[in-house]
Amino acid sequence: MRGRLLVVEDEPSIRELLCASLRFAGFAVSSAATGSEALEAARSGAPDLVLLDVMLPDRDGFEVVRRLRSSGVRVPVLYLTARDGADDRVTGLTIGGDGYITKPFSLEEVIARVTAVLRRTRPGESEQLTCGDLSLDVESHVVRRGARVIELSPTEFRLLHCLLRNSGRVLSKAQILDQVWSHDFDGDVGVVESYISYLRRKVDASEPRLIHTVRGIGYMIRP
Ligand code: CA
């Protein structure tokens, strides 16, 4: 488990998209739709990080953080906002936020920012993903099979990262498409099949093969 997240967002479609994507990326996720629910959930659920929409129906995100801090809750906070004014930034950071993610965001960006904050606030978490003698260093982007360094394109790297985060679990082509390509990409799952074959040529050039096809479903990486 990569950490416990609380997603606070009143817009159901954004909230559900964030929750599903972050769960899929390996986080334990709970959610709240209002500032009051957020306060309750942050106090009782002890999340490692809160993704907090600034514009909420009852009270704004800054007020939520002010209340949390005044009751001694020090959880890291990343604000989600469509507003991008300098004043908001200063206000938010002054009252204890750890940064801003401006809407519209990409899921890749959200996952990268969440991971970066958790790495800082939960030291000692592994930054290397491995499967057999294959390793992927999240920070330096170096991929190795044994001692051999494997050169990957950015898309191949994201695809391998996605498989390794879910090592031992079968991923459907649609799940992979959602995670690796941006959610507004309107291609079909054929692109997943193509990139799996590119990746196999590089990663599975030596035995044992690590990337497995699960007929009728999708793919899985395992030793
Ligand atoms: Ca909102």
TrEMBL record:
Residues 4-118 form the Response regulatory domain. SUPFAM superfamilies: CheY-like (SSF52172). The modification 4-aspartylphosphate is found at residue 53. It holds the Pfam family Trans_reg_C. Keywords: Cytoplasm, DNA-binding, Phosphoprotein, Transcription, Transcription regulation, Two-component regulatory system. InterPro entries: CheY-like_superfamily (IPR011006), OmpR/PhoB-type_DNA-bd (IPR001867), Sig_transdc_resp-reg_receiver (IPR001789), WalR-like (IPR039420), WH-like_DNA-bd_sf (IPR036388). GO terms for molecular function: cis-regulatory region sequence-specific DNA binding; identical protein binding; phosphorelay response regulator activity. GO terms for biological process: positive regulation of DNA-templated transcription. Residues 126-223 bind DNA. This is Two-component system, OmpR family, response regulator. It is found in: Cytoplasm. SMART domains: REC (SM00448), Trans_reg_C (SM00862). Residues 126-223 form the OmpR/PhoB-type domain. GO terms for cellular component: cytosol; protein-DNA complex. It comes from the Bacteria.
